[in-house]
Inverse folding.
């Protein structure tokens, strides 16, 4: 299938689409991103690449990193991990505090902020040099040694990170954070600050489209069972309180970030990234979702 032509056609179809979304403003540095940027990249498991628009421009991957930190922590902790974080959709905003009190400090899933902070705590406990070891893991997955944190974005988020600090403190009070809260939260903000292009990110996620094995170099990154589970959590929790809507419209496991990126994987077929910084009220890319809906409908390539 010639996805390049399909991307062009869908983009033309969406030319009259009025995007009333707004760039994330609660992380001051993210407000500087040009709102009308738009990029798409698809990597097939056969090694083909297709792209459109600003697909070679770096953006802040934000919460998309939570899939990669989960993969690393799951590999280290195995099923012990699920004692500290659940696998249920939260039905609440990604940064909500309310549920965590009722659930006694056990986050519903690893993709809401509370869950990703617990995963960060696991990595702080288990990795010798968390910051270096984690970025090395991402470089290994992407086959790209240039991938890095963005200190400007991380510092900006740290300067306003009151809500994440509250989540971390609350979980510490319930005994679900082992390390110093400042260390954990700083590491979490660093993870979210990683910058990648659509093409780098699609390449990085290809192992999840191929049952845990990188189809390009043959490296088994995680077992097929873990890949199945991570995709299942993406399907149910990857877009927070819009996961149902996303499943209904797009029909693929996906993960969004407030930088405007959305990654989807179609097991056995492809990984794909769409980047469009204007977000809807739930913090997910407006046009990104719309584009993916058109794409899976047109190509009849949802998992359902
Ligand atoms: O912790 C935060 O709020 C951000 N660093 C990440 C949130 C995010 O990307 C939610 N995604 N849609």
């Amino acid at each position: 299938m010639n996805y390049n032509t399909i991307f062009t056609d869908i983009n033309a179809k969406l030319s009259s689409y009025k995007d009333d979304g707004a760039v994330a403003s609660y992380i001051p540095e993210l407000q500087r991103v040009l709102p009308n940027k738009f990029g798409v990249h698809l990597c097939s498991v056969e090694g083909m690449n297709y792209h459109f628009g600003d697909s070679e421009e770096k953006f802040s991957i934000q919460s998309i990193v939570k899939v990669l930190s989960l993969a690393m922590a799951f590999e280290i902790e195995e099923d012990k991990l699920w004692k500290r974080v659940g696998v249920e959709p939260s039905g609440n905003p990604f940064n909500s505090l309310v549920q965590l009190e009722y659930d006694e400090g056990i986050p519903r899933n690893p993709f809401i902020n509370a869950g990703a902070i617990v995963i960060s705590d696991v990595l702080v406990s288990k990795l010798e040099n968390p910051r270096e070891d984690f970025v090395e893991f991402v470089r290994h997955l992407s086959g790209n040694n240039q991938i890095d944190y963005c200190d400007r974005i991380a510092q900006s988020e740290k300067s306003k990170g009151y809500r994440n600090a509250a989540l971390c403190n609350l979980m510490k009070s319930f005994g679900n954070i082992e390390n110093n809260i400042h260390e954990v939260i700083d590491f979490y903000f660093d993870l979210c600050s990683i910058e990648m292009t659509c093409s780098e990110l699609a390449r990085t996620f290809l192992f999840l489209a191929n049952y845990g094995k990188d189809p390009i170099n043959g490296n088994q990154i995680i077992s097929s069972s873990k890949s199945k589970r991570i995709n299942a959590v993406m399907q149910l929790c990857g877009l927070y309180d819009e996961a149902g809507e996303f499943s209904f419209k797009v029909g693929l496991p996906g993960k969004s970030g407030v930088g405007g990126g959305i990654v989807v994987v179609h097991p056995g077929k492809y990984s794909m990234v769409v980047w469009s910084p204007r977000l809807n009220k739930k913090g997910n890319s407006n046009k990104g979702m719309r584009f993916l809906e058109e794409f899976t409908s047109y190509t009849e390539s949802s998992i359902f």
Observations:
- Residues 62-63, 94-95, 113, 157, 164, 192, 256-258, 283-284 surround 6-diazenyl-5-OXO-L-norleucine (CB under 6 Å).
- The first strand starts at residue 39 and ends at 44.
- The longest helix spans residues 113-126.
